Amino acid sequence: MISTLEELAPLADYSLMDGLNSDPDANASGDDHAPRQVFSGHYVPVSPTPIEAPDYVAHSHTLFRELGFADSMAQSANFVRAFSGDLSLVPEPMRKVGWACGYALSIYGTEYTQQCPFQTGNGYGDGRAVSVLEAVIDGRRWEMQLKGAGRTPYCRGADGRAVLRSSVREFLAQEHMHALGVPTSRSLSLFVSKTERVRRPWYSEGSRSMEPDHMISEPVAISTRVAPSFIRVGQLELFARRARRKAHPQAMEELEKLVLHLVDREYGDVIDTELDTAQKVVLLAREFRSRLTALVANWIRVGYCQGNFNSDNCAAGGFTLDYGPFGFCEVFNPHYQPWTGGGHHFSFLNQPAAAERNFQSFCSALRPLLTAHHDCLLQLEEIQNDFAEVMQAQMETMWAAKLGLDAFNAELFNELETLMAHTPVDYTVFFRELSNVPDDIRPLQKSFYKNLNNADAAKPWMQGAAPEGIEKRWSEWLTKWKSLAGIGSTAAANGTNLRSREELAKKMKLVNPKYSLREWFVVPAYQQASEGNYAPIREVQQVMTRPYAEQSKETEEKYYRLKPAEFFDVGGLSFYSCSS
Ligand SMILES: Nc1ncnc2c1ncn2[C@@H]1O[C@H](COP(=O)(O)OP(=O)(O)OP(=O)(O)O)[C@@H](O)[C@H]1O
Ligand SMILES: [Mg+2]
């Protein structure tokens, strides 16, 4: 058990990142905080800027346990100091200087440089994220990165800070996603400043405007996230763009180094180290395709919408990264999109298409390494072309699992999708109620935002008569579903393998969570936290890290609920701009 920073320090291992190139223009002391262009090198040494008067808010008990950390360490003085941004006293061999990385941006497959203040792409990257440690713990390599740790050369003139609100959201969401069984960066710890605040645009109470309507002052925070690496698709793109246009003599070599580094960090267990670069590149593309398609199918399984699935928010290791504009779907809507800037292209059921665009960007970034290997180029092209097919197969497997079926049935699914959208249903509650394998549709109605028999509805547009015959269609759908799932006499007559209700329910409850992180649970938690009361965060954390469990009656009453009518269309609750 590791219970002090002194015990953690010897596990530090920077050997892999030391193989990368540091920005030759950087100041090695890490005192490099002003916005500027970075022309080459994989990282810039940067020391984090500590937040003033840090106060412990939360840590992930789950991750601490996995890493063999004692819970008490989270509140020990040296740990608090280091993970609130002050590395000046960290014990050797931990380093007193962290690092930030540059990356490029493609939005839905289109390359951009306009977001870079210099219009060159050389000023874009980790503007407020600073990695502080790489450690090998129990045979696994982890990078620890502070978010909100002050300005870096990539800050583009901004303050380098993250507010408590956005930090709480990311902290809770990462561990919820992990508990849902979806690959993700993880949350280590969260500290808030008792004195330092910044101003951000936000929504006034009950505002229905799409964009924030005033400025508020919010406490700053530093959260630490943990992953095998933080390499993004956009990062590979930055180096590939430079290699393509021969921006400097080492550009191609830097691209190759980064790609091989990615293989070591994220794909070491599946790609043989003895292979040459071209072979590794082909295997990397195949493996990333498999992870990315599985990831997106998992997102849809649990109702998650990334909201802003740009290539710089797409981790090259194939896990979820950047919990800013995200949300969990409540009222089922294929176009659900919590971020006001995200548009249709990054909406809920369009995520497979958005992933394909990121995958195309990924393959384009690998291509310069294969110019002398015609056969490998052809293989890469085939891997890219087959993305949609692999994605579709993952989706069908996922829908079948969500419905407790051995095989996907298009007709059954299409009718369900129509009914879910027309009724409409709460995505989480619907699938969980279905997992109880009800006799008739009454229990499912618990998930309906519109009462089929009268005009009660959560929103004015849901009032009025239900679409003609919808109740009958639901009943018919349920009968057909049960028959395909092997329940009841119709199934027997059809020759489907019979199953017990209990067996089916048990299986379905492992893929259909009971609890999902609805924004109206998170809002009071961060509001209370900004007043110094962290108990609501802990409660939400406790419930949301066991999302498949039934939990207590009290928890069920409070958290297994449809979105209340008063929260619809409210800025900061139903949608948000990305300001964080
Ligand atoms: N307050 C800030 N100061 C400096 N840079 C910022 C700030 N807020 C965002 N950025 C940078 O702007 C870019 C786009 O912001 P986005 O909201 O995607 O990032 P984020 O949530 O900070 O980042 P990440 O993708 O690292 O989770 C990122 O490169 C980010 O580092
Ligand atoms: Mg981002």
Automatic annotation (TrEMBL):
Catalytic residues of the enzyme: 312
InterPro entries per the UniProt record, alphabetical: SelO
Cofactor: Mg(2+); Mn(2+)
Keywords: ATP-binding, Magnesium, Manganese, Metal-binding, Nucleotide-binding, Nucleotidyltransferase, Transferase
Residues binding Mg(2+): 313, 322
Binding of ATP, residues: 125, 127-128, 147, 159-160, 225, 232, 322
Record-level Gene Ontology MF annotations: AMPylase activity; ATP binding; magnesium ion binding; manganese ion binding
Catalytic activity annotation: L-threonyl-[protein] + ATP = 3-O-(5'-adenylyl)-L-threonyl-[protein] + diphosphate; L-histidyl-[protein] + UTP = N(tele)-(5'-uridylyl)-L-histidyl-[protein] + diphosphate; L-tyrosyl-[protein] + UTP = O-(5'-uridylyl)-L-tyrosyl-[protein] + diphosphate; L-tyrosyl-[protein] + ATP = O-(5'-adenylyl)-L-tyrosyl-[protein] + diphosphate
Leading EC class: transferase
EC number(s) from the headed UniProt entry: 2.7.7.-, 2.7.7.108
Metal-binding in keyword set: yes
Family the entry assigns: Belongs to the SELO family.
Record's function text: Nucleotidyltransferase involved in the post-translational modification of proteins. It can catalyze the addition of adenosine monophosphate (AMP) or uridine monophosphate (UMP) to a protein, resulting in modifications known as AMPylation and UMPylation.
Protein name, UniProt field: Protein nucleotidyltransferase YdiU
Gene field: ydiU
